[in-house]
Automatic annotation (TrEMBL), chains A, B:
Record keywords, A-Z: S-adenosyl-L-methionine, Signal
Organism listed in the record: Prymnesium parvum (Toxic golden alga)
Organism lineage: Eukaryota, Haptista, Haptophyta, Prymnesiophyceae, Prymnesiales
Domain annotation TsaA-like: ranges: 49-192
Pfam families: TrmO_N
Classification via SUPFAM superfamilies: YaeB-like (SSF118196)
Leader peptide range in chain numbering: 1-18
Superkingdom of origin organism: Eukaryota
InterPro entries tied to this protein: TrmO-like_N, UPF0066_cons_site, YaeB-like, YaeB-like_sf, YaeB_N_sf
Name of the molecule in the record: TsaA-like domain-containing protein
Amino acid sequence: MRHLGVCALAASCAGAQALQGGAHDPRASRPPLQYTAPFQDRWRQPVTLTPIGWISSPYKERFGTPRQPTVTRQVAGRRAQEGTIELAADVGLRHSLRSLEGFDYCWVICYMHMNTGWRPLVTPPRGPRKMRRGVFATRAPHRPNQLALSALRIREVQAEELRIKVTGLDLLDGTPVLDIKPYIPYADAFPNAAAGWVDELGSPHAPDHLDYFPPPPHLESSE
Amino acid sequence: MRHLGVCALAASCAGAQALQGGAHDPRASRPPLQYTAPFQDRWRQPVTLTPIGWISSPYKERFGTPRQPTVTRQVAGRRAQEGTIELAADVGLRHSLRSLEGFDYCWVICYMHMNTGWRPLVTPPRGPRKMRRGVFATRAPHRPNQLALSALRIREVQAEELRIKVTGLDLLDGTPVLDIKPYIPYADAFPNAAAGWVDELGSPHAPDHLDYFPPPPHLESSE
């Protein structure tokens, strides 16, 4: 309860600073203080999100869709396929892509709309067939919240058209997009990080259990 | 409409294969085919997610919370703070952390519950003061969907207790956790990726506009 008192007091002080503070006091631009205590049980509440757009992708069904954006060996033509991120025109996103064109990659968080159901233990498409892993130790698309995380290569940002041309998609056509963030190496790149059971598999480009050849008909023609 | 027909036929074939296929036919284990066409307008529907747990963090308010997990210079004691990811005990997550202990990092996707409102253009805490960037070219916490993406260092996985001890938090205490994924360098690490306007700023550890010293009282005592 002490927190609440501190919170209210601090918030009003910060407000006063913001009004009166000189340009030389960096604290003048602090956001008002607000403590976490009143939100303590908030984590249990369901979260409702509104997609900001969708993926336009050559992958029309899950078969033949790569398991990671960077794994192209299983992909039709053995090369990264092209696609676009299309932002919704009616939710005030104009200008939202400004300055993104200088980045090589962006993170895209999507809702895997065609997947339902999940289990705490899963058998990944690589590794010993009978070895099950905890779902959070895998990138399995069937998970408690069907969120996808893909680092996509930016080919062109068409800000006015609310469109980003990308390669390296591992996402199905029509997948709802929830967020886009710039890829920043100092925060995101740990090239020497240990990857547990994945490290034991050898080459990341080794084949999965699923044989993706020949590719499904709708991808075959694009080769 | 042709897609729908193909879909139904292919799905039933795949089902038959799964029942009759021998162990040597890798296609026997293909998931049933299901095309994206029937889901074409699905992207507009709101998505409701259920948090799988919460963050236990030393950061009780936004002031003094680092802007990225790896940026510790502004943090109390100038070092990465410790915290835990606590999974909910009542949603069947037992075993879900199995095999995660071999990974150095995990991605954590959270809902930034204390943030509301967003604008298409934002002024980041670093860089020229009057330079506004598109929200999707920044990691600003105020965004259309308040999703956070953090690569956290795994210190210990206590699978039985449904707990992961981590360092490098940039998340507030009580933040709802939506997903945890292993960090896999071949898919996630692009150390030489261009980072647009962020590259122009020089050192990632340079100070923000906000002066985080002295740290707020609840962090000061932990130094």
